[in-house]
């Protein structure tokens, strides 16, 4: 039996991230004859006992609009491969001509080419590493990519809402090397090998020679990582965003994502992934969870029990006196008649009504401001939706707070944590966002405490 430390999971929550299961990656599924990084009977999230790789895309709050089926899944876990496919650097060919570099790169082995000028290229050959498994992530659907991510419009709620946008995610964005033996360390590196087993850093890419004579570089838009302080718990605090190089070194951020000048090297920090590490690919942000961390995370069954507990208390609309109820955890596109709504300025929970509907809204003009009939506070009036992706919760407390402006509901500590996380946006800005739909948070705190009214009888 494998230990709990043998399991990793990614959770996608950035709005520009839509994930697909690449057909060529089907070989990664853990069959009954393979050894998974996770004990199936405890943590395997697949409905099949023979498969423990799934994808997660929280743009859709725990599931895709049409359900998790076929080649499109909502989450995935990394499983120990039947045979190691990791690589490690070996021979360095310095001052090669482009023709010689091409000849070297065409060998049936992995290599990284650093183009210094039109007449000079350094090629680093990589050899097989029997101690590690390699997993690659990127926008490409070619076979070397295990998990494919592409861009969609932020805040989209269904397939009909999505639009095609110019992607900023690299076709071969990053690679993760997982040790096959204890302590099962996972390390991230910028850039992934293409179908020719090569990584090419052109003339315009930031690259340099290290103090020990080796080469290193950065990808065009970079791979950023942030490790939370105090782990991924109710005591978690935001860490500092760093950039990871092609060789796995850690640097401070560049002035902009694609700037030529690299940041300062941070020798005291590592590219080793820990529970709650955030990985940003400039268009898709990934959440890394460990087995030990997930063991402390509420399950969907627990979230469902909390939903039923809230509904059993029979909260009422203070205007219509009708009983409110959160719908089932199954995804719905539109609110139902019992759906709770909230005034985000004050937190008072109501059923849907037209009271306080301002004239500019009635006439179809801009302005979503409503006046709360309880306290007269004016602000957005939105339906409440339970956050269904359990992997984003830092504790198992009841859902008592809602993100502003989307209305996704979660625990107090979870709302406080994500409201403090500056997520990369574009090439040089950061802002906090709801983990369940990726909308940028607004208001003083980014979330509000919900005030329910109980039944009068």
From TrEMBL:
Coiled coil: none annotated. Belongs to the pellino family. It holds the Pfam family Pellino_FHA. One of its GO terms (biological process) is protein K48-linked ubiquitination. It comes from the Eukaryota. Residues 60-305 form the Pellino FHA domain. GO terms for molecular function: ubiquitin protein ligase activity. The lineage of its organism: Eukaryota, Metazoa, Chordata, Craniata, Vertebrata. This is Pellino E3 ubiquitin protein ligase 1b. Residues 310-457 form the Pellino RING domain. It comes from Amphiprion ocellaris (Clown anemonefish). Keywords: Phosphoprotein.
């Amino acid at each position: 039996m494998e230990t709990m430390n043998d399991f990793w999971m990614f959770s996608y929550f950035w709005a520009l991230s839509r994930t697909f299961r690449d057909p060529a990656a089907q070989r990664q599924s853990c069959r009954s004859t393979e050894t998974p990084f996770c004990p199936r009977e405890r943590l395997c999230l697949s409905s099949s006992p023979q498969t423990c790789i799934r994808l997660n895309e929280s743009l859709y709050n725990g599931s895709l609009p049409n359900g998790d089926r076929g080649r499109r899944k909502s989450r995935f876990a990394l499983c120990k491969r039947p045979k190691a496919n990791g690589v490690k650097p070996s021979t360095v060919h310095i001052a090669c001509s482009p023709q010689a570099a091409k000849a070297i790169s065409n060998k049936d082995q992995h290599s990284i080419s650093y183009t210094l000028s039109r007449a000079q290229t350094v090629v680093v050959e990589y050899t097989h590493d029997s101690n590690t498994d390699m997993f690659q992530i990127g926008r490409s659907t070619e076979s070397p990519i295990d998990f494919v991510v592409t861009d969609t419009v932020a805040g989209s709620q269904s397939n009909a809402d999505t639009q095609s946008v110019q992607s900023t995610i690299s076709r071969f964005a990053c690679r993760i090397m997982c040790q096959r033996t204890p302590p099962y360390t996972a390390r991230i590196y910028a850039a992934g090998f293409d179908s020719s087993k090569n990584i090419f850093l052109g003339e315009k890419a930031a690259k340099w020679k290290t103090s020990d004579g080796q080469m290193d570089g950065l990808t065009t838009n970079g791979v950023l990582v942030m490790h939370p302080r105090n782990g991924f718990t109710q005591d978690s605090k935001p860490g500092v965003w760093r950039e990871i190089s092609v060789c796995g070194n850690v640097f401070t951020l560049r002035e902009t994502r694609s700037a030529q000048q690299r940041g300062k090297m941070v020798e005291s920090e590592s590219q080793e992934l820990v529970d709650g590490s955030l990985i940003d690919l400039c268009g898709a942000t990934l959440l890394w969870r460990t087995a030990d961390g997930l063991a402390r995370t509420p399950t969907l069954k627990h979230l469902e029990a909390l939903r039923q507990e809230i509904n059993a208390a029979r909260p009422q609309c203070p205007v219509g006196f009708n009983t409110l109820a959160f719908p089932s955890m199954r995804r719905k596109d539109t609110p139902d008649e019992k759906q709770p709504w909230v005034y985000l300025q004050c937190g008072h929970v109501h059923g849907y009504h037209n009271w306080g509907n301002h004239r500019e809204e009635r006439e179809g003009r801009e302005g979503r401001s409503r006046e709360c009939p309880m306290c007269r506070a004016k602000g957005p009036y939105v339906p409440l939706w339970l956050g269904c992706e359990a992997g984003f919760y830092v504790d198992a407390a009841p859902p008592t707070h809602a993100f502003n402006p989307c209305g996704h509901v979660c625990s107090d500590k979870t709302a406080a944590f994500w409201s403090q996380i500056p997520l990369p946006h574009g090439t040089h800005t950061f802002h906090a966002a709801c983990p369940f739909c990726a909308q940028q948070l607004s208001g003083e705190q980014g979330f509000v405490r919900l005030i329910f009214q109980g039944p009068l009888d």
